[in-house]
Amino acid sequence: MPEFIPVLGKNEIQNIVAQIARKISSDYQGQELILIGVLKGAFIFLSDLVRHLSIPVKVDFVGVSSYGSGTTSSGIIRLTRKVEIDLTNKDVLVIEDIVDTGLTLTYIVDYLKTFSPKTVKVCALLDKRERRSQTIKIDYACHVVSEGFLVGYGLDYNEDYRELPEVYHLKF
Ligand code: IMP
Ligand code: MG
Protein backbone atom coordinates (compact mmCIF):
# COMPACT_ATOMS: atom_id res chain seq x y z
CA MET A 1 0.00 0.00 0.00
CA PRO A 2 1.33 3.48 -0.81
CA GLU A 3 1.50 6.06 1.95
CA PHE A 4 -0.87 9.08 1.87
CA ILE A 5 0.83 12.23 3.10
CA PRO A 6 -1.60 15.16 3.58
CA VAL A 7 -0.86 18.19 1.39
CA LEU A 8 -4.07 20.26 1.53
CA GLY A 9 -6.91 19.76 4.00
CA LYS A 10 -10.60 20.56 3.43
CA ASN A 11 -10.46 24.00 5.06
CA GLU A 12 -7.28 24.96 3.32
CA ILE A 13 -8.81 24.00 -0.05
CA GLN A 14 -11.98 26.00 0.65
CA ASN A 15 -9.93 29.06 1.63
CA ILE A 16 -7.81 28.79 -1.52
CA VAL A 17 -10.89 28.36 -3.74
CA ALA A 18 -12.72 31.30 -2.12
CA GLN A 19 -9.70 33.55 -2.50
CA ILE A 20 -9.11 32.69 -6.17
CA ALA A 21 -12.85 33.07 -6.89
CA ARG A 22 -12.80 36.58 -5.41
CA LYS A 23 -9.88 37.51 -7.66
CA ILE A 24 -11.51 36.03 -10.79
CA SER A 25 -14.85 37.71 -9.98
CA SER A 26 -13.16 41.08 -9.67
CA ASP A 27 -10.88 40.70 -12.72
CA TYR A 28 -13.74 39.60 -15.04
CA GLN A 29 -16.44 41.96 -13.73
CA GLY A 30 -18.71 42.98 -16.64
CA GLN A 31 -17.12 40.54 -19.11
CA GLU A 32 -18.48 37.38 -20.73
CA LEU A 33 -16.44 34.72 -19.04
CA ILE A 34 -16.39 31.11 -20.17
CA LEU A 35 -14.76 28.56 -17.90
CA ILE A 36 -13.31 25.51 -19.62
CA GLY A 37 -12.75 22.64 -17.21
CA VAL A 38 -10.16 20.05 -18.16
CA LEU A 39 -11.61 16.56 -17.68
CA LYS A 40 -11.42 14.64 -15.65
CA GLY A 41 -9.16 16.00 -12.94
CA ALA A 42 -10.69 19.48 -12.67
CA PHE A 43 -14.30 18.39 -12.09
CA ILE A 44 -14.31 18.96 -8.32
CA PHE A 45 -12.23 22.14 -8.34
CA LEU A 46 -14.43 23.66 -11.06
CA SER A 47 -17.66 22.81 -9.28
CA ASP A 48 -16.40 24.34 -6.03
CA LEU A 49 -15.01 27.38 -7.84
CA VAL A 50 -18.23 28.34 -9.68
CA ARG A 51 -20.15 28.34 -6.39
CA HIS A 52 -17.75 30.90 -4.96
CA LEU A 53 -17.92 33.29 -7.94
CA SER A 54 -19.99 36.47 -7.76
CA ILE A 55 -20.16 36.98 -11.55
CA PRO A 56 -22.16 35.03 -14.16
CA VAL A 57 -20.17 32.51 -16.22
CA LYS A 58 -20.74 29.82 -18.81
CA VAL A 59 -19.14 26.42 -18.31
CA ASP A 60 -17.81 23.91 -20.80
CA PHE A 61 -15.29 21.10 -20.73
CA VAL A 62 -12.49 19.71 -22.81
CA GLY A 63 -11.23 16.20 -22.37
CA VAL A 64 -7.63 15.23 -22.82
CA SER A 65 -5.71 12.13 -22.05
CA SER A 66 -1.96 12.19 -21.74
CA TYR A 67 -1.08 9.92 -18.88
CA GLY A 68 -1.11 6.25 -19.85
CA SER A 69 -1.05 4.68 -16.45
CA GLY A 70 1.25 5.41 -13.57
CA THR A 71 2.78 8.69 -12.60
CA THR A 72 4.60 9.88 -15.69
CA SER A 73 3.05 11.52 -18.72
CA SER A 74 3.19 9.62 -22.00
CA GLY A 75 3.86 12.98 -23.64
CA ILE A 76 1.27 12.18 -26.30
CA ILE A 77 -1.86 14.23 -25.79
CA ARG A 78 -5.18 13.24 -27.27
CA LEU A 79 -8.34 15.33 -27.32
CA THR A 80 -11.18 13.16 -25.98
CA ARG A 81 -13.85 15.86 -25.77
CA LYS A 82 -14.20 18.99 -27.87
CA VAL A 83 -15.47 22.33 -26.64
CA GLU A 84 -19.13 22.99 -27.56
CA ILE A 85 -19.76 26.63 -26.63
CA ASP A 86 -18.85 29.28 -29.21
CA LEU A 87 -15.68 30.95 -27.95
CA THR A 88 -15.38 33.63 -30.65
CA ASN A 89 -14.44 36.93 -29.03
CA LYS A 90 -15.11 35.58 -25.52
CA ASP A 91 -12.96 35.65 -22.41
CA VAL A 92 -11.88 32.11 -21.74
CA LEU A 93 -10.39 30.76 -18.52
CA VAL A 94 -9.05 27.21 -18.50
CA ILE A 95 -9.56 25.42 -15.19
CA GLU A 96 -7.00 22.70 -14.57
CA ASP A 97 -6.30 20.51 -11.56
CA ILE A 98 -2.51 20.42 -11.76
CA VAL A 99 0.21 21.59 -14.11
CA ASP A 100 3.23 19.33 -14.27
CA THR A 101 5.37 19.47 -17.45
CA GLY A 102 2.93 21.98 -18.96
CA LEU A 103 2.44 19.91 -22.13
CA THR A 104 -1.29 19.37 -21.54
CA LEU A 105 -2.00 23.02 -20.89
CA THR A 106 0.08 24.19 -23.84
CA TYR A 107 -1.90 21.81 -26.06
CA ILE A 108 -5.25 23.00 -24.67
CA VAL A 109 -4.44 26.71 -24.90
CA ASP A 110 -3.29 26.26 -28.52
CA TYR A 111 -6.48 24.31 -29.29
CA LEU A 112 -8.74 26.96 -27.70
CA LYS A 113 -6.98 29.78 -29.54
CA THR A 114 -8.11 28.26 -32.85
CA PHE A 115 -11.65 29.44 -31.95
CA SER A 116 -10.56 33.11 -31.88
CA PRO A 117 -11.42 33.96 -28.28
CA LYS A 118 -10.76 37.50 -27.00
CA THR A 119 -8.50 36.21 -24.21
CA VAL A 120 -7.35 32.83 -22.93
CA LYS A 121 -6.04 32.59 -19.39
CA VAL A 122 -5.25 29.71 -17.10
CA CYS A 123 -6.23 28.81 -13.55
CA ALA A 124 -4.69 25.77 -11.86
CA LEU A 125 -5.30 24.47 -8.37
CA LEU A 126 -1.83 22.97 -8.15
CA ASP A 127 1.35 24.21 -9.78
CA LYS A 128 3.99 21.48 -9.69
CA ARG A 129 7.21 22.95 -11.00
CA GLU A 130 9.76 20.16 -10.72
CA ARG A 131 9.23 18.73 -14.22
CA ARG A 132 8.05 21.83 -16.10
CA SER A 133 9.31 21.70 -19.68
CA GLN A 134 7.01 24.27 -21.33
CA THR A 135 7.05 28.01 -20.79
CA ILE A 136 3.46 28.59 -19.78
CA LYS A 137 1.93 31.39 -17.76
CA ILE A 138 -0.45 30.26 -15.05
CA ASP A 139 -2.52 33.39 -14.47
CA TYR A 140 -4.24 32.06 -11.36
CA ALA A 141 -2.08 29.54 -9.53
CA CYS A 142 -3.57 28.44 -6.26
CA HIS A 143 -0.95 26.33 -4.56
CA VAL A 144 2.64 25.60 -5.56
CA VAL A 145 4.09 22.18 -4.85
CA SER A 146 7.67 21.26 -5.54
CA GLU A 147 7.42 17.57 -6.32
CA GLY A 148 5.66 14.26 -5.88
CA PHE A 149 2.53 12.60 -7.20
CA LEU A 150 -0.70 14.00 -5.77
CA VAL A 151 -4.15 12.46 -5.50
CA GLY A 152 -7.56 13.44 -4.18
CA TYR A 153 -9.95 16.37 -4.82
CA GLY A 154 -10.31 15.20 -8.45
CA LEU A 155 -6.74 14.01 -8.99
CA ASP A 156 -6.27 10.32 -9.66
CA TYR A 157 -3.73 7.57 -9.75
CA ASN A 158 -4.89 5.07 -12.38
CA GLU A 159 -8.46 6.44 -11.92
CA ASP A 160 -8.45 5.87 -8.15
CA TYR A 161 -8.69 8.39 -5.29
CA ARG A 162 -10.50 11.20 -7.17
CA GLU A 163 -13.24 11.18 -4.52
CA LEU A 164 -10.96 11.99 -1.57
CA PRO A 165 -11.93 15.41 -0.16
CA GLU A 166 -8.31 16.36 0.62
CA VAL A 167 -5.12 16.39 -1.47
CA TYR A 168 -2.46 13.85 -0.61
CA HIS A 169 1.06 13.11 -1.74
CA LEU A 170 1.11 9.46 -2.75
CA LYS A 171 4.36 7.92 -1.60
CA PHE A 172 5.27 4.58 -3.14
P1 IMP B 1 1.40 17.85 -17.75
O1 IMP B 1 0.92 17.77 -19.15
O2 IMP B 1 2.68 17.12 -17.54
O3 IMP B 1 1.47 19.28 -17.24
O4 IMP B 1 0.38 17.05 -16.86
C1 IMP B 1 -0.84 17.58 -16.57
C2 IMP B 1 -1.89 16.53 -16.38
O5 IMP B 1 -1.37 15.32 -15.85
C3 IMP B 1 -2.89 17.07 -15.40
O6 IMP B 1 -4.00 17.52 -16.08
C4 IMP B 1 -3.19 15.89 -14.52
O7 IMP B 1 -4.38 15.30 -14.95
C5 IMP B 1 -2.05 14.93 -14.68
N1 IMP B 1 -1.13 15.02 -13.52
C6 IMP B 1 0.07 15.63 -13.46
N2 IMP B 1 0.63 15.52 -12.25
C7 IMP B 1 -0.27 14.81 -11.51
C8 IMP B 1 -0.28 14.38 -10.14
O8 IMP B 1 0.62 14.65 -9.33
N3 IMP B 1 -1.38 13.68 -9.75
C9 IMP B 1 -2.40 13.39 -10.59
N4 IMP B 1 -2.44 13.79 -11.86
C10 IMP B 1 -1.38 14.49 -12.33
MG1 MG C 1 -5.95 17.09 -15.56
Keywords for this entry:
single chain, 172 residues, alpha/beta, six-stranded mixed β-sheet, three-stranded antiparallel β-sheet, 3 helices, 9 strands, binds inosinic acid, binds magnesium ion
Entry summary:
The protein is 22% helix and 38% strand. By secondary structure, it is of the alpha/beta class.
Structure, explained:
It is a single chain. The chain is of the alpha/beta class. The protein is 22% helix and 38% strand. The protein has helices at 10-27, 43-50, 103-113, and strands spanning 3-8, 33-39, 57-67, 73-81, 91-99, 119-128, 140-145, 149-151, 167-171. It has a 6-stranded mixed beta sheet, with helices on both faces. Strands 1-9-8 form a 3-stranded antiparallel beta sheet. α3 (103-113) links the parallel β5 (91-99) and β6 (119-128). The longest helix is centred in the first third of the chain and has 18 residues, at 10-27. The model has no long low-confidence stretch (mean pLDDT 95). Bound molecules: inosinic acid and magnesium ion. GO terms for molecular function: guanine phosphoribosyltransferase activity; hypoxanthine phosphoribosyltransferase activity; magnesium ion binding; nucleotide binding.
